[in-house]
UniProtKB/TrEMBL annotation:
<feature type="binding site">
    <location>
        <position position="178"/>
    </location>
    <ligand>
        <name>phosphoenolpyruvate</name>
    </ligand>
</feature>
<dbReference type="GO" id="GO:0005737">
    <property type="term" value="C:cytoplasm"/>
</dbReference>
<keyword id="KW-0808">Transferase</keyword>
<feature type="binding site">
    <location>
        <position position="328"/>
    </location>
    <ligand>
        <name>3-phosphoshikimate</name>
    </ligand>
</feature>
<comment type="subunit">
    <text>Monomer.</text>
</comment>
<feature type="binding site">
    <location>
        <position position="178"/>
    </location>
    <ligand>
        <name>3-phosphoshikimate</name>
    </ligand>
</feature>
<dbReference type="GO" id="GO:0009073">
    <property type="term" value="P:aromatic amino acid family biosynthetic process"/>
</dbReference>
<feature type="binding site">
    <location>
        <position position="407"/>
    </location>
    <ligand>
        <name>phosphoenolpyruvate</name>
    </ligand>
</feature>
<dbReference type="InterPro" id="IPR001986">
    <property type="entry name" value="Enolpyruvate_Tfrase_dom"/>
</dbReference>
<comment type="pathway">
    <text>Metabolic intermediate biosynthesis; chorismate biosynthesis; chorismate from D-erythrose 4-phosphate and phosphoenolpyruvate: step 6/7.</text>
</comment>
<keyword id="KW-0963">Cytoplasm</keyword>
<dbReference type="GO" id="GO:0003866">
    <property type="term" value="F:3-phosphoshikimate 1-carboxyvinyltransferase activity"/>
</dbReference>
<keyword id="KW-0028">Amino-acid biosynthesis</keyword>
<feature type="binding site">
    <location>
        <position position="18"/>
    </location>
    <ligand>
        <name>3-phosphoshikimate</name>
    </ligand>
</feature>
<feature type="active site" description="Proton acceptor">
    <location>
        <position position="328"/>
    </location>
</feature>
<feature type="binding site">
    <location>
        <position position="19"/>
    </location>
    <ligand>
        <name>3-phosphoshikimate</name>
    </ligand>
</feature>
<feature type="binding site">
    <location>
        <position position="359"/>
    </location>
    <ligand>
        <name>phosphoenolpyruvate</name>
    </ligand>
</feature>
Amino acid sequence: MTVRPARLAGELTLPASKSVAQRALIATALTGRRFEKNAPVFRIDYPGADVISIAHAMAALGSLEIEQATDDVLIVRALGTPTDLGSPEAPLVLDCGNSGTGMRLLMGALAGLLADRPGAVTLTGDASLSARPMERVAFPLRRMGARIETAAGHAPLTVTGPAPLAPIDIALPVPSAQILTALCLAALATDGTTTIDLPGPSRDHTERFLAHCGVDISRSGETTTSTTITGPANLELRSLDVPGDESSAAFWLAAAALHPDAEITMRDVGLNPTRTAFLTALHDMGATIEIRPDAATGPEPTGTLIARSGAPLRPIVIEGLRSADLIDELPILAVVMAGTPGTSTVRDAAELRVKESDRITLTCEMLRAAGIDVIEHDDGFTITGSDHRYLETSGEVMRVRTDGDHRIAMAAAILEVTGVAPRPIVADDEACAAVSYPRFFDDLAALSGPRPAPAR
Ligand code: S3P
C-alpha cells in the first residue's frame, strides 16, 4: 500500500545546468595557455554525476584540478591547455561515464587541441553511452580534417593528431546542439569562418558561453538557425554562474501541475529562451506557473519559478519541430499527459530512442505498468489520460524498467507521488537519478513532508 502525500510544498535549489556546466569544464582545455598564477576557479553548485564525470575527464587530460567534488559543490581550478595528449601507441584514455554531451563535446574540443599537435586520446563511456551513435559528430569533424576512429560508430573512439582543421559551411540533418557545439569547439582551431545551419530548434548555450569568453560567434534565426564562428581563437575564461537546470525543473513543474495540492518554488532556474519549451507546453495544457525573471548578470538568464496545483489540464499534441524542442522533457511530459483527461500525442520524436535509453519504449512500458492506456509509435506515443488522483494504491508493486536512465527513474517517481498511477510503482534503479540530479529523492521527501499513515 502506498499513500499519496497530502501536499507537495516547499522551496528547492536545483542541480546546476548539465549543459552549461559541461561546456564550462571542457572550455578549461581551450584557453591556449597554461595558468601558473591567478588561474580561474569555477564553482558549480549541486553538480550531477555527468558533470563530475566530465570534471574527472578534464583532470585526467590535465586541463583542470579538482579542489572539491561532492553532491553539494564542485570546485575546479583551470590549468589550461594540456601538455600531454598521449600517443597512438599509448593513447590517453578519458572516461565520460554516462555523459553523451560530454563525449560529443570533447570530440570537437580534442580535434581542435590535436589539430597541430601529435597525440591520441581515447574516449570511453559506460554501457549506455557505448551504445549511443557517435558518427553524427565524427563525420562532420572528419570533414573539417579531424582524424577520429569509432568502434563501428560508437565509443570507444580515438582522436589522433596532428590533423589540421579547416573551417566548413555545413547544414546538419538533425537539430542537435551537441553536434553544433563539437563543430564550434573544433572551429576555434581553424583559420576562418565556419557556418553551421540547423533544421530546427536547439539550445544556444554554446553561442552564449563562447561569446562570454570573447569568441567571435553569433546565431541568427529562431527555429531554423545559422551559427557562424571565426577562428583561430583562444578562450578568455571568465567566472560564470551556472543556472539551475531547466530539465530538472520540469519534474517539479509536472508534479505541481498533477498533484491536487502543491506549491513548489525554485530559484535561480535557467530561463534561456531556447530551453523554455516545457514551460510553454504546460502553459498550453492549462497549468499555473508563475515566472519571475531575475535581473540579468551573465550570459544565461535566470529566474524564480513558482508552480501551483489546481488548474484543470487539457490534452496536447506535440509534433514536428516542437518535439525536438522538448526532447529531454518528453518522458516527464508523458506523465503529465497520463494525468490529463483526453488523448495526448507525441510524434516526430524518434531521437528519443537513442538517448540514455530507448525512451519511447521505456516511457510506454512505465505507463502501461502503471495501468495507463498508451499506444507506442515508431516516433512517439499516444496516451489517454484521466484526472482521477489515487489517494492510496494497493496490490502488487510494479517495478519500472529504467535501463539506468535518470529521466525515466524521476518520471516514475512523479507518476507515483502525484497519485496518477492506479497501482503502486517503483523504478528498478532509483540511484541512476544522480546522473543529473543526485538529491532528487531527498528533495521529493522534503516536498512531501511526513506521509500520512496508510488507512487500515
Ligand atoms: C544537449 C543537447 C541535446 C540534449 C542533451 C544535452 C547539450 O542533445 O538532448 O541532453 O547540452 O547540448 P542533442 O544536441 O543531440 O539534441
